[in-house]
């Protein structure tokens, strides 16, 4: 079993009957969705899923997991999602899969947020992974130039056909190649203040549990 599958399976154990469950996006979250789907099908687990991307919606529907739109739930009991980097103080970068807008909205409504990662995602400080910033198309070159002026080494994300990558909301993503982020809260506040920025991939003070895949098995950190 690979490490992603190991943590996906472990995380599914935290899902209980009757819960509203935020279903994350990405190659690690994929295994958690599989494991939750298996429990729904084989054990009669009764849950409602709230998905964080069109990809996860398709996957969950195929597995027969009952879903609701985020607009139709009062709150979410637990959200399980992957992450691109997690620092020593449990701050995170997400959005490598371009889904960080919906992922953050779902996480913000959740009583508990569990991140599932293999141990390669644990870092001392954030920033080696390019920080995704979702921007509206209108005026995106101005935002890009501002990042250039600030020496934030921006690049527009492209898809496999070398076209601008489009998010589920039809926006673009600018990745910032910062190498090291010394003050994530200050950076998040500044990005939040920019007109044209829809959402960035800094997920700060939001995780309640991290499940790390190691050669010796899954480690649960709270
Ligand atoms: C998608 C995400 C993913 O959770 C993150 O990129 C981790 O993905 P993976 O498990 O495939 O490494 O934030 O927007």
UniProtKB/TrEMBL annotation:
Gene Ontology biological-process annotations = pentose-phosphate shunt, non-oxidative branch
Which keywords has UniProt assigned to this entry? Answer: Isomerase
> What's the domain of life for this entry?
Bacteria
GTP-binding: present as a keyword of the record? no
Q: Which InterPro entries match?
A: NagB/RpiA_transferase-like, Ribose-5P_isomerase, Ribose5P_isomerase_typA_subgr, Ribose5P_isomerase_type_A
Summarizing the function annotation, the protein's role is: Catalyzes the reversible conversion of ribose-5-phosphate to ribulose 5-phosphate.
Catalytic activity reads:
aldehydo-D-ribose 5-phosphate = D-ribulose 5-phosphate
| HAMAP family named among the record's database cross-references | Rib_5P_isom_A (MF_00170)
Pfam families (UniProt xref): Rib_5-P_isom_A
Pathway, per Swiss-Prot/TrEMBL? Answer: Carbohydrate degradation; pentose phosphate pathway; D-ribose 5-phosphate from D-ribulose 5-phosphate (non-oxidative stage): step 1/1
GO function term, MF aspect, one: ribose-5-phosphate isomerase activity
**What name goes with this protein?**
Ribose-5-phosphate isomerase A
Protein family per UniProt: Belongs to the ribose 5-phosphate isomerase family.
Q: Which SUPFAM superfamilies match?
A: D-ribose-5-phosphate isomerase (RpiA), lid domain, NagB/RpiA/CoA transferase-like
């Amino acid at each position: 079993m690979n490490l992603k599958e190991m943590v996906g399976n472990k995380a599914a154990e935290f899902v209980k009957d009757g819960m509203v469950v935020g279903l994350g996006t990405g190659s690690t979250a994929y295994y958690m969705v599989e494991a939750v789907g298996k429990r729904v099908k084989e054990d009669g687990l009764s849950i409602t899923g709230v998905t964080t991307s069109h990809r996860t919606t398709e996957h969950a529907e195929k597995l027969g997991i009952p879903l609701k739109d985020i607009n139709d739930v009062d709150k979410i009991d637990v959200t399980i999602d992957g992450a691109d980097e997690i620092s020593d103080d449990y701050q995170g970068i997400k959005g490598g899969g371009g889904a960080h807008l919906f992922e953050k909205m779902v996480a913000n409504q959740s009583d508990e947020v569990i991140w599932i990662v293999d141990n390669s995602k644990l870092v001392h400080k954030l920033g080696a992974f390019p920080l995704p910033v979702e921007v509206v198309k209108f005026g995106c070159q101005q935002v890009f130039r501002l990042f250039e002026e600030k020496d934030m080494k921006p690049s527009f994300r492209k898809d496999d056909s070398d076209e601008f990558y489009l998010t589920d909301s039809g926006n673009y993503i600018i990745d910032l190649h910062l190498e090291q982020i010394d003050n994530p809260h200050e950076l998040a506040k500044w990005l939040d203040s920019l007109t044209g920025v829809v959402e960035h991939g800094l997920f700060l003070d939001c995780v309640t549990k991290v499940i790390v895949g190691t050669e010796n098995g899954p480690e649960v950190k709270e």
